[in-house]
Structures are given as C-alpha cells and as structure tokens.
Amino acid sequence: MFRYTLAPLVLAVACGAFGILPAHASGRETVCTITVNSSNEKQAFSRYLPASRFDFVELVERGRPDWLETARRKHIRCDILVISGHYDGGDYAGGNEFFSEHVDSREYLPVDEMERVACTDRDDGLFAHLKAVYLFGCNTLNPVPLRSAVDEIARSLVESGHAPAEAERLAREMSPRFADSSRDRMRHIFRHVPAIYGFSSVAPLGPTAATYLDRYFRAGGAREVANGTPSTRLLGYFPGHSLTVTRGSTDADADAGFQRDVCQFLDEHRSPVERVRFVHALLGRDMAEVRIYLDRLERYAAAVAKQPRTPALDDALAALASDVAVRSRYVAFLHATGDASLRVRLIDLAERLGWFSRDEKLAELARFLADRYAQPTLTAADVDLACTLNADHSLDRAGRAIRVEGTVRDVVHDAILACLGRNDRREDVLQALTSSSDADVQVARVYLRHRPIADGDEWRDLASEIARMRDATAQVRAIDALGDHRVSDPTVMEDLARLFPVTQSIEVQRAIAGALIRADYQAMATPAFVQTLREHRLKSSTGRDLIDVLIDRLEAAS
Asked: In this structure, are residues 114 and 318 in contact, taking their beta carbons and an 8 Å threshold?
C-alpha cells in the first residue's frame, strides 16, 4: 500500500478530470490526484474525505515530464482519480491534453499518454481498479464525434469505391463501432469504471467548482465518493453547468473492437514486430476504416522510424512496403479524395510506410498541386498549403510544368504559382495588397508570410502605391499587411510618415501608427516628427489609441 501525505488533488480549472482508485485489502482507499492547474477541487476533496480511510497521492512530479509513467512503474493503484486542468479536446492531431493557464508552468497531461498507460496495464494497472473518476475541465465528456461522424465515414466509403447509397448504409452501421468523441476516449481510458464525471461543454473555474463540491460534501456526498455507483445528486450541485456522468467502456460495447485496436498501437508489452504486423493488417481493411485511424497511423509511422532496427523488424517493415495489393488500394483512395489536406497527409504517410520513394512523393505532390490549380475556385488556404509544401523549393519544377492555359487567372491562382517558384507571378500578388478586395489582400498576406519581401525596391514601390490609394478601408488593410513585416527601409517609413498628415481617415492614421510601432521607428524619433503627429492627428472618439502609443515611444527614444 502506498501512504502519502496530502498533496495537490485536481487537474482542471476550466478543463479537467477527477478519477477514483481501487480499494486495498486493508479497507483504505487511494485517491490519486493530478494537479496541472488549480488545486481548489482537490482541496475540497481533502477537506471532507476522512484521513482514517483515504490516502492521497499526487501523481504530478514538478519538473519531470514522465511522471505518469513513473507512477505506473511504482505500481500505484488508484481507487479514486481527480484531475484538474484546462482541457483541449479538439481533435486527435494536436489537441487533447490537460494543461495549465500559467505560462511558466511546464506540467501538462496528454490524453495519448493516459491511453498508453491504460492500454499497457489494462487489467492491473494505474487505472485498472478505479471506482470513480472526476474530470473538472471543459468538454472532457463532450459527446460530439471527432473523426467518426456518419457523413465523414460515408464520404470516405464513396472515395474508397462504394456506391453512395451503400456508403450511407455502411456509415450508419460503422459509426457506433468507431466512437471517438472526448467522452468516448475517457470511457476507453477508464474501462469498467462505474462513474466518470466530467463536463459536456463549459466547466466552472476551480474556485467555483470547489464551492459546489463543498456544498455537496456537507450534504453527505463524501459517503458516495467510493461506493462504486454514479451519483445523480452530485450533478444537481453544479447549477447552470454541463456536469454529466457516464461509465467506462466494456467488452460488450459496440466500440470494443475499436478500443482494442487503439491499444494495439499503444500497449508497451507488444513488440515492435507485433505492432508492424498489426498496422499491416489494419491497412488491408476498407479504406474508410483506415481513414478513421489516420492520426494514429501517422504517429506510429513517426515513432517506428526512431526505433532501434533489428532483422525481424526490418523484415516486417519490408513485407508491408512490398504489399502491392494494399499499396494499390491506398493510392487509389489517395487519388480519389477531394480533401486537399487529407491527400497531402496520405502522401506523407505513404512515404513513411515505404510505398513512395522521395522522388515518387514529389511526383505525387506535383500531381496534387496541378489538380488543385485546375480548380476554378480556390482560397488563401490553398496558397498556404502550396507555399508550405514548397518551403524548400523542391517543387519549383512542378510549378514550371503546370499548364495555365484555359484555367482561371486571379490572385489565388497567381499566388499558388508564385509559391511554386514562378517569379513572373510574384509582382501581381504583391499588387494585390493594394486591392479593394479583402479576400485578395488576405491571399497576398498569406503568400508574404512564406515568401517575404527582402528587396528594397519592392518595399519602396509597394509603399508608394499604398500612399496613392483612395479607398481608406483598403488602405488600412494594405498598411496592416506592410506592418506585418516590421519594415526598416527609411524610404518606406518616410512614405508612411508623409501620408499621416494628409489622410482624412483616423483609421488610416492608426494603421500607420501600428506599422511604425512594429518598424524600426527609432530612426524617426525626432521632435519635428512628434510635433507633426500631434498637430495632424485626427480627433479620436474612443480616447487613447495607437497614435498615443507611438508618440510616447518616439518621445522616449528621442
């Protein structure tokens, strides 16, 4: 039995979780606490759970990133689990973690790590004997699917070759088998736990949550904490909030097979060869199902590349890479999808799996970009993707090969070609900064984030063009875009300075002030320029603004 002094208990202020651990033979209960952010909820538990029956264990070890794994290796067994922390459960590709609101805090808890610990010791591990879990965080039990919504599965089924009507029918059948909401992930992590409390949307902050808990415990709630049954009474003590309760998953649930597959990726007791063979078999399933596992396949492929190589592992990876039938189905799905970002991810994963060489990957990306360019309607997101893919200019040849005859000619298409090394389109994209169209300006700004202006002549020509603009709204957008690049060219700053006293728009003056604040304004810190600003600034109806900030900084620097 582990005996600890009272330590931080909860891990959620606006996004967190509470959990309960198994009872020991002595009749005592272990309360495990994970305190990433607020300790208010934990302290509420410690005030009312008697020390004669409950031992508190804080799992977080400050300054140590592997504290959850350390707890697992110490063979700690939790009866009650309380997690306190802000929670981000947006999707599998980068969210899903408990974190602190304090910028100097390095403690956080990824849901992936919770899954790994739960999958590694499913029957007798850290979370295997829980009686209750308390998740004090926003959306910890949000039921909205992240990846397996019926319409998304149906779309993937159509792209993998199924007829639309059949795809809709299969999607309705498959959706319950691949439950992947935040609530479902918590149910999978805390298998067989009879009571998991959390929030389906916004959760109260720590002090407020602790106040509600105090009222509940004073009314006798402490007797319900470890009794192994859900408490509907507790929900009533959180008025106006989305506190809800669910149970852990079981082998009888429709998504039990999905959870077993997830654990195949994560179980530390499985050998690298076993994992490769599992991934190989998974990739042989319907591509709509493979799509559901894409996030996990990406993380697996990145991890296996860093593992020590053995002859057995090399053989298993080679068998996967040489499976022509599976590769062909995968590539056909890749070509069929209309989701641009998904196609790029599939191309990248194919290279990691050994299905594409570097040259083959570039050829696939070139084909993808040519397909995208041929679309009549594109957005700034397409420009961002094209510039990102060609950050190293490896796709410049693809840009030169794209046929432009008969396609739409607009700022977006020009920007895509400019991203792909077509310098003959760059000037047109830069000119779009002075457009009256907000969409065109946005495209140009996205392009310039990837391909910034480094040439002084380009800066001076652009600044001169901005100064001649007559549309104040468009002029503000253009000046804001100019300010993004923290200009240091004296001629550009002088053009902005000359525009300040002649414009009749206070919004333009504020935009000029904002651009100069971000620029190398010390060179203009003269009493004469400060006097110009004071004399010609237009009257503000909102009080102190950016113009005042600029004047203060110039005076301090002069």
From this structure: no
